[in-house]
Design goal:
Largest sheet of chain A: 11 strands, antiparallel
Number of strands of chain A: 21
Oligomer: homodimer
Number of helices of chain A: 25
Helix content of chain A: 40-55%
Distance between the termini of chain A: 36 Å
Amino acid sequence: MTPTRPAALLASLSLALAAFLPGHARADEGMWMPSQLPQIAAALRQAGYAGDPAALADLTAAPLNAVVRAGGGTGAFVSPDGLVLTNHHVAYGVIQYNSTPQNDLIDAGYVAADRAAELPANPDFRVLVTVGFDRVTDRVLAAARGRTGRAYHDAVDAAGKRIVAECEREPGVRCSVASMYYGTDFYRIRQLELRDVRLVYAPPRSIGNYGDEIDNFMWPRHTGDFTLLRAYVGPDGKPAAHSPQNVPYRPPSHLRVARQGPREGDFAMLAGYPGVTFRHRTAAEFAEQVEWTLPARGDVFDALIAAIEQAGRQDAQARTRYASQLQSLKNSRKRAAGELEGLRRSDAVRRRAEDERAMLEATRGGDARDIAALQRVLAAGSAVRERELLLGLLSSQTQLLRSALLLERLRIEAARPDAQRESGYQQRDLALIEGVLRQVQRRYDPAVEQALLRVLLARYQQLPEAQRLPEFDAAFGRTPAELDPALAALYRGTALGDEAARLAALEAARQARALPADPLLALAARLMPALLRLEDARKAREGEQLRLRPAYMRALVAWRQRQGGAVYPDANGTLRVSYGRLEPLHARDAVTFAPVTTVAGIVEKHTGQVPFDAPQPLLDAIARGDFGDTADPALGTQTVDFLTNLDTTGGNSGSPVLDARGELVGLNFDSNWEAVSASWWFDPRYKRAIHVDMRYMRWLMEKVYPAPHVLREMGL
Amino acid sequence: MTPTRPAALLASLSLALAAFLPGHARADEGMWMPSQLPQIAAALRQAGYAGDPAALADLTAAPLNAVVRAGGGTGAFVSPDGLVLTNHHVAYGVIQYNSTPQNDLIDAGYVAADRAAELPANPDFRVLVTVGFDRVTDRVLAAARGRTGRAYHDAVDAAGKRIVAECEREPGVRCSVASMYYGTDFYRIRQLELRDVRLVYAPPRSIGNYGDEIDNFMWPRHTGDFTLLRAYVGPDGKPAAHSPQNVPYRPPSHLRVARQGPREGDFAMLAGYPGVTFRHRTAAEFAEQVEWTLPARGDVFDALIAAIEQAGRQDAQARTRYASQLQSLKNSRKRAAGELEGLRRSDAVRRRAEDERAMLEATRGGDARDIAALQRVLAAGSAVRERELLLGLLSSQTQLLRSALLLERLRIEAARPDAQRESGYQQRDLALIEGVLRQVQRRYDPAVEQALLRVLLARYQQLPEAQRLPEFDAAFGRTPAELDPALAALYRGTALGDEAARLAALEAARQARALPADPLLALAARLMPALLRLEDARKAREGEQLRLRPAYMRALVAWRQRQGGAVYPDANGTLRVSYGRLEPLHARDAVTFAPVTTVAGIVEKHTGQVPFDAPQPLLDAIARGDFGDTADPALGTQTVDFLTNLDTTGGNSGSPVLDARGELVGLNFDSNWEAVSASWWFDPRYKRAIHVDMRYMRWLMEKVYPAPHVLREMGL
């Protein structure tokens, strides 16, 4: 997520740090801002941390500045020469970029024999090093204060854009503004943008992704989900595009890989970039998520999945083109089911409601009034939730309609000065838009797109009168009988299926010129006024939430204070620290999963078939039992993965896991199925995170696919 | 299984008891004959048994005479008035017999308010009380000694039949002859045949079969798989058919239900009637089972399953008629897969081979020569294994062809004096044959039967020349192209699809008269000479095995003696005792299942849909938490099922589980998936048995579906 966009602003709020009661934080739950750590120092030490919590407060200083954004996840520097450790699945695109049918590095893995053999990453892969984290609340809210609704939203949005634009004047730096505690506080984040990243070491797929979708979200796990990259900079030490002249980046600090491994009960700590959580949402939002959103999403996802599968049955090309979208829909569907199951199991709706009721009873004055106003704004949004869900999917699940809407909107925005344009349509976004328009070719089939639109628009046609839009009714009719011919005519007539046509339209749109005559572009122009009306209403609601949620957060912090607890901000893609320990999972009655797995499980799961096709060198090495000093002394064998109760969510992939001395013992790569609902509700009985044991990585690099020079570089 | 039949004779062999080294039995493995228990008394006491092992030696005296055969499983008397405790699934037919669409006792469960309300079982349901167990080895082998092959077989068979016929002259008694240690020793078993059995207490299906097929073979389990019956006798105390004048049977002893429950590590002991095991088979038989039999069975089962499912897709009536056969095939398929997986996981083939090699090196003289001869007999059987498998399925998987073969064979046998007839075709078997012929109506569809025959005969047609039978080739042709019209003609012309026609043919066959003219009956007459030839060869091989396996058993016992162990006979449907303890299951790497489940798991599994539709009164009672003295003091909640390492197999359903003091703490009802292979190889890491905790039964009968009068009768 991009923290400068309104949705991201809304996903977070900030509190005065004075609100924390040192030493009274609830252990195990919490994605703490580094700056909070000195204030919960007593709890951290009690949990077993042997270092100085104060040293963790500054995320731009060692050791936390060794933790970086890598691709879509997290990574960490593990050598003075810019070696970055992250997940195999985070670096997947890098490996894929270097693979050919003749030389499939995904299947075979890769060990660069020396620096010259390190392979360039795909050009859009980035390593981002945080170099600045500054509170800019007053600047962001200066113009917003005294305003309401849309005006409040736009003032915050404009201030954020100004701050980012000013910040990015420095070359090689990427900036963003993050809101903490849902609009309470704002921080400007400056990140060094390392663009020359290279592949150093990747295990074969059958290690790095052993178990694949079957084991996804599962514990016990036996996956070696790690890869080593290296960041390069220009000879001047500044970020630069890939070039043979570039030299390894010298990070300000790097993590030290531990020689010992962790055992059940041991302290563990993790730093990374969790994406988004909803733990501090209102009781009404919890109830809506469980009672409406998740079931409704499940229902419409099921229908979209069925439409794609139906089409794929007769048409192999359509099957191929929609394989990725289908996979993603199924994944979303599975997650929705898991989230629903987990929230019900934790009785989260009732517990949040009781908690909020007690909190509200203790809240008076202006904050109480603001919270009441917030509840009304949320209710107004709920009144149009079916329509919002369907219209959102209308562009996210289509290729040509999405392209047409994107082009028409760009045409409108391009007429304005860049700074006043909607986020996503500024100069800095044009490359991304072009990418979207280009990839259509590999993902589009007219019959499937029409089938998906039929699913969505037939549901739209059943909305109550108050949610109908005249522009949509005119375009698609009011009955399924009118819908089919309307869609057929649109897709028969459009030229947007052709890449050249889309790129020609992009050229016109970016110059704010009239778009070519095309039925789908004409449709986008007819629908746009309706979409802009809805966007205006949405932004007005979002502005109100941004204005009012801080009152809710103040009340919550005060309430937690009385209970002796501290409050961390909901996740928003910024660097956070979590601490806890290696802990078994009592997943169900009489079922206990130990927190450490061993190579015996690789052999047990091995079938010889993907995804349980452990490579022969690995099986041989296991059979030899030659584990040396990477074996666990108590278990007497080689460990593979381990489990902690650390607080993580999407975005934490690749987060380094540290022991009590701050040494690197693991690499986060997944969480368990029972924890899918933790984005809303942290249930200590079930929330676990899954990590690669660094001893497994070391053993693979020592004995199975040796890379002694890389181990030496890491000091091993 | 009926122990008097040749197959059963072959399934067991017997050893001189002097061969056992007291106190050196391997703990946990073993289905001991009660008479062996005094000789392993030290091991029993060391395992924790507090009673006197000598008191367990006589299975016709207390406490073991409280353990009975009930229906297809085991049961136990639990009151002085003939109350029999067994599994819900063992008594399922009894409950079903009393159910109507209007009053479905399977769904609702049943609590007889008083004795008058106890409902009669289906008339063929039996409770068998063992009253005699006498060694008859010399009588059985007298005429066989000095003979070989078919003659040896027939002499043993004839002697067994004579003993049974003589024994059954006493009214109300059912007799059989069991062979121990594969023909080494023979025992005559006399059992009181209690024919008036009534239903006293059954929980609803959603308790008694909670989880059904999904949880079958699974641990953790949450099933209340128990039912209480009562045995009645005539006013004279003798077995009698159902009559209102009958009175409760007063058993010679009954088991006392414990007030305490067991905990992890506690001693446990079980008595019951395990059906068949193969633990003492030769290394070659182990190898054949893993390398050929299980894969081949899996393969042909898959083809039969596909044929039924294909037919069912177009025809709802065929689907209904073959539902039970399909279910049974799938179950066999699943078991074959589980057995294969388990034997491979335990490396049983290699370990058995190494064990046998060492044993043979230590074996000399006549026994060594007999064992070599046994290996040759087994190899001769292996040479025709494909044909034996296919021809066996030809009658077990068909309805009309099986009927025709049954009728033709009966016609032949009926011409002989009853005592000389083949087992299964004697006077005492006629009711069973009639039952088989009558049930065809509900289970037959001509298209499906032809599809199944096509699967089997097409495979027959691919057999090598040496295994071909001229009669079969003439009847079905030598290619699939000839097969289809042959089958079509047979099924177009036959009248055996009509029940009256089958019963008319039965009337003719039992009088040894010519059968009616019918294409299928004519086919049976043409095939019969071939089948009788094969039977003759099979019986000759079986006779040789019966003659030679005792040498193998002697060598094995001597070998175990040197290792300090004792040998129990392979299971053969006779009463056995196993002892061990409550033990967790480490099923896979990092996965541990605790040995006791609680009511929390019922709620976790509850979906409201069959088979996880816990009844509301149960859910309410769990929510109330009103467990009283049936709760486990350490767990602080109500337990449901528990897990032991007791040695069990099919037939042990309903076996009582006793604690160290000999009190009833559980009721065996299943084993775990990992233990399916235990019929061949006992792997202490994985072999577990699953039991209902008697505290759960008591709690249900106290608080959920109360039956205080029944509890009082049990002394609770």
